[in-house]
Amino acid sequence: MTIATPERGCLRFARGTHNRIRSIQFGGEEGFYKAAYTFDFDEKVEDCVELPVTAGQFIIFTERLHSWLGSKHDRPPSAGVQHACYSTHVPAYTNKKYYRSVYNGGKYHLDKWGTALLRGEDRIRASRAIPPADLETGVFTRVVPPGEPLPMPKRTKAAA
Questions:
Q1: What would the 3-class secondary structure string for the chain be?
Q2: Residues in contact with 44: Cβ distance below 8 Å, sequence separation at least 6, in sequence order
Q3: Residues 6+ apart with CB under 8 A from 79
Q4: What confidence score (pLDDT) does residue 30 get?
Q5: Distance (Å, rounded) from C-alpha 92 to C-alpha 114?
Q6: What are the tens digits of pLDDT across the range 99-118?
Q7: Tens-place pLDDT, residues 8-59
Q8: Neighbour count for residue 102 (Cβ, 10 Å)
Q9: Which of 57, 69, 127, 143 has its CB surrounded by the most CB atoms within 10 Å?
Q10: Is the C-alpha dihedral spanning 62, 66, 70, 73 positive or negative?
């Protein structure tokens, strides 16, 4: 794992961008994969902060924050994972067979995509879901359609 320093391209955040929604306009001069876009602010003028991290550290932030890699270099970027948490009443992956990415023009087939219940119980079942047992074992069996009850893993009582 690499260390994300300002010289190696750590994340930069524009201060105050969490206070209001700012737009990203596609068709601009910047690029991410094959998509060109422009922020509605100038990173050279805005008050920005760099957040270096060492191996094993991570940053959690809301989608309202505008962030970008702080520098361009010939080294590979640090790894990143996008994670979103929603309440069980918010539908996800419903009535779609695939997702087309705006960023890289890719087409992702959703036949093995679904939500993962982090805790509690999903009584509403508004979304496609991965069975909790599959999440525990790491063995994919199927995606459970919305409305169908989730098969819950069988729990055994601990020996006294």
A1: CCCECCCCCCEEEECCHHHCCCCEEEEEEEEECCEEEEECCCCCCCCEEEECECCCCCCCCCCCCCEEECCCCCCCCCCCCCCCCCCCCCCCCCCCCEEECCCCCCEEECCCCCECCCCCCCCCCCCCECCHHHHHHCCCCCCECCCCCCCCCCCCCCCC
A2: none
A3: 1
A4: 53
A5: 8
A6: 776 555 667 788 888 888 88
A7: 778 888 887 777 776 767 665 555 555 666 667 677 777 888 888 888 888 8
A8: 13
A9: 127
A10: positive
Residue of 81, 52, 49, 76 whose CA lies nearest to 65: 49
Full-prediction pTM beyond 0.70? no
Q: Are strands 24-32 and 11-14 parallel, antiparallel or unpaired?
A: unpaired
Q: Which residue has the tokens 């047992």?
A: 133
What six digits make up the tokens of 101?
Answer: 């990415």
Encoded amino acid at 45, one letter: V
Residues present in the chain in total = 160
Please report the sign of the dihedral spanned by the C-alpha atoms of residue 132, residue 136, residue 137, residue 138. Answer: positive
Q: Which of 57, 67, 89, 75 is CA-nearest to residue 7?
A: 75
